[in-house]
Amino acid sequence: MKRATLAVTLALLSAPALHAQASLSQCRTSSAAEMLVLFDQWNAGLLSGDPAQVAQLYSKDAVLLPTLSPVPRLTHDDRLAYFEKFLRDGPSGKLDTHEVQTGCNEATAAGLYTFEFAATGQKVAARYTFTYRWDGQRWLISQHHSSLQPQG
Fold first, then answer.
1. Residue 26 dihedral angles phi and psi, to the nearest 5°
2. Which regions form coiled coils (predicted)?
3. Which one of 70, 98, 138, 152 is most buried, by most CB atoms within 10 A?
4. Overall fold of domain 28-148
């Protein structure tokens, strides 16, 4: 009886190690160029005017801290509601600077960007951080922080 219990305990203890080893062998890394393409896809979603096209680029559990709203957007419906309002004035984003860091199944792009709104001609300078996570099929935004760029 004790031998069987020991065998089960050892099996349970080694399962996480085996899972971690399998995860490491399935590690997906990215390049800075690929991260810039992901921004282009996000910006194309803005240009489409379709909030659903933008919202589908975020993981289910993504955190969006948007530029023009004080409310964190934590669900798909929250992000969709934000983009419905944000897209009304026809925004287009342009990266002014970017720094990219990549790792196993995760990558981060951060820097400065400018939005130009077609409906008003207004330009808004902001800071951004996009964190992407590989979901086994594609890169999705897991965290997105955007804030107005301070003057000075």
1. -105, 25
2. none
3. 98
4. Nuclear Transport Factor 2; Chain: A, (3.10.450)
